[in-house]
Design a protein that fits this description.
Blueprint: H1 22-38, H2 42-59, H3 63-67, H4 74-86, E1 92-96, E2 99-102, H5 103-128, H6 132-142, H7 153-183, H8 193-199, H9 201-224, H10 243-265
Antiparallel strand pairs: 1-2
Helix pairs in contact: 1-5, 1-6, 1-10, 2-5, 2-10, 4-5, 6-7, 7-9
Length: 266
């Protein structure tokens, strides 16, 4: 299950999406997320489906690889849907005690689950087609005007880059610890909620210790290399827009314009 987590992982491939500037992909991801809230009609979701399917196709990332990343949020999806269905007012369709299912609850629940799935897929496509270094460079370049307000843009981008790099490392470390504990007789599957929570203690302690050790090693390595932040630093591969990047900006703007238009007219 831990290996199904794909957020923060990079899928190497030669595609149109991989070749785009990271600033374009960050902008496109933001536009896609906003569009899910701008237009909640059925036609809006149809357009979003066509759009995200086309992007996945052009990225050459296997669709099954992206879908398996949803396994990690099944509990969140179920909790959100159940909470929405049971606590939304409307015409009561089914009532069992204090639990009631309404027509508006079913509609809103369907919208919530589709929206959450698309949020995860959209974010996953961005991280799968962009290296952590490029994400950090794109964030730093995009928010550089905020340095006039004394915002430490470089430091924030560096922290996000390190966080993205640590996700697959910690996932692999957790998987190793689980296998080691199971080899010693630990049981993470059977029993009630309290028993499963207690069984996680032998997993959490070594994972925290390992994480702290890695963080200290990283800090020592950065100090040994005289790292002092973004002042005066240069880039080995400076970001430069290409014709395809401008075309992508135009596509994203057109997509957002259609979504807003549909939301107003429908």
């Amino acid at each position: 299950m831990l290996r199904d987590i794909i957020i923060g992982q990079y899928y190497p491939e030669k595609s149109i999406i991989h070749g785009l500037d990271p600033r374009v992909k960050l902008f496109g991801t933001m536009i896609f997320i906003i569009s899910l809230f701008v237009n909640e009609s059925i036609w809006g979701y149809v357009l979003a489906t066509v759009f995200v399917t086309a992007v996945i196709k052009m990225s050459k990332v296997p669709f099954k690889y992206i879908i398996k990343g949803l396994k990690g949020i099944l509990f969140l999806l179920l909790f959100s849907v159940i909470f929405t269905v049971f606590f939304t007012d409307g015409e009561v369709l089914v009532k069992i005690g204090f639990i009631k299912i309404t027509d508006n609850g079913l509609i809103r629940g369907a919208k919530v689950i589709v929206r959450l799935i698309y949020l995860i897929i959209g974010s996953s496509v961005m991280t799968l087609t962009t290296t952590p270094t490029d994400i950090a460079d794109g964030l730093e370049k995009s928010f550089r005007p905020l340095t006039c307000l004394k915002v430490p843009v470089h430091d924030i981008a560096m922290m996000m880059s390190i966080a993205f790099r640590f996700i697959p490392i910690l996932t692999e470390e957790t998987d190793k610890i689980i296998k080691a504990q199971m080899a010693r007789g630990a049981d993470f599957e059977t029993g009630g909620l309290i028993k499963k929570a207690k069984a996680m203690i032998p997993l959490i302690v070594p994972l925290v210790v390992s994480s702290v050790k890695r963080a200290l090693d990283l800090a020592t390595a950065m100090e040994a290399r005289c790292y002092q932040g973004g002042d005066g630093r240069t880039k080995m591969k400076p970001l430069k827009y290409k014709k395809g990047d401008y075309a992508a900006y135009l596509v994203f703007a057109l997509y957002m314009g259609i979504m807003i238009g549909m939301g107003v007219l429908l």
